């Protein structure tokens, strides 16, 4: 539990083989580091001259028992190889999901710079609530899975005159499933940009 506004500029914090609950308690956790947390870890070893990776799991849940609890980093929150759940609070910068799972049931992710609020490289992202905002707000890569349900708000923002962006970018061979009543707000390039044909099983209502 954060007891006061805190600036932490030491090495990244690895959460491995354990489950951690972080209560922001209405305070700010800030770092000038590029990133702050590694949820799980990928280690590399050479076996018979062949590079082999080993995944170590970890779990983290972020809550805010007060109001306006915030985590601010200079580039991105960290790397998710295990499981990260955002229930409440604000993350000022992007989430990077590699192999792991990111669950968002509430709170906010705000990407102030030219990047994505969530980069889903090869993991699973489940969004059922909360607010996301940023250029190319959710960016998916081939092989990743993204599930959007409930009633989150996903807003693509235009960074500058050249970078006009979108709410969700869907790469070829990425899986994106949208259900519930999310609100998608696009930048100048629209709400959804897809690299493959998609199937639309529902029609949006006004403004959604």
Count of distinct strands: 23
Q: Specify the helix fraction band.
A: under 10%
Radius of gyration: 17 Å
**H-E string:** EEEEEEEEEEEEEEEEEEEEEEE
Query: Would you tell me the structural class of the helices and strands?
Result: mainly beta
Write the layout of secondary structure elements.
Layout: E1 6-7, E2 13-15, E3 19-23, E4 28-30, E5 37-39, E6 41-47, E7 50-56, E8 59-63, E9 70-80, E10 83-86, E11 90-97, E12 101-104, E13 108-110, E14 118-120, E15 124-127, E16 131-134, E17 138-140, E18 145-148, E19 153-156, E20 168-170, E21 175-178, E22 183-185, E23 192-194
Parallel strand pairs: 1-4, 2-5, 3-8, 4-9, 5-9, 8-10, 9-11, 10-12, 11-13, 11-14, 12-15, 13-16, 14-17, 15-18, 16-19, 17-20, 18-21, 19-22, 20-23
Antiparallel strand pairs: 6-7
Describe this structure in words.
With 208 residues, this protein is mainly β. It has no helices and 23 strands. The strands form 3 sheets. Strands 1, 2, 4, 5, 9, 11, 13, 14, 16, 17, 19, 20, 22 and 23 form a 14-stranded parallel β-sheet that branches. Strand 6 (41-47) and strand 7 (50-56) form a beta hairpin. The model has no long low-confidence stretch (mean pLDDT 88).
């Amino acid at each position: 539990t954060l007891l006061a506004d805190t600036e932490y500029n030491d090495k990244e914090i690895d959460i491995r083989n354990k489950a951690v609950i972080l209560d922001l308690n209405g305070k700010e956790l800030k770092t000038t580091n590029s990133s702050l947390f590694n949820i799980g870890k990928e280690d590399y070893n050479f076996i018979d001259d062949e590079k082999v990776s080993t995944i170590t799991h970890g779990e983290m849940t972020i809550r805010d028992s007060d109001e306006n609890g915030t985590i601010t980093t200079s580039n991105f929150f960290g790397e998710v190889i295990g499981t990260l759940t955002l229930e409440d609070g604000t993350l000022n910068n992007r989430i990077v999901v590699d192999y792991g799972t990111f669950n968002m049931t509430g709170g906010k992710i705000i990407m102030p710079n030219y990047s994505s609020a969530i980069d889903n490289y090869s993991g699973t992202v489940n969004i059922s609530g909360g607010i996301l905002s940023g250029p190319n707000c959710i960016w998916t890569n081939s092989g990743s899975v993204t599930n959007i349900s409930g009633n989150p708000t996903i807003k693509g923002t235009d960074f500058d005159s050249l970078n006009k962006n979108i709410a969700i970018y869907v790469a070829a061979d990425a899986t994106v499933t949208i259900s519930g009543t999310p609100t998608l707000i696009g930048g100048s390039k629209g709400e959804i940009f897809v690299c493959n044909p998609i199937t639309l099983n529902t029609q949006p209502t006004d403004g959604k």
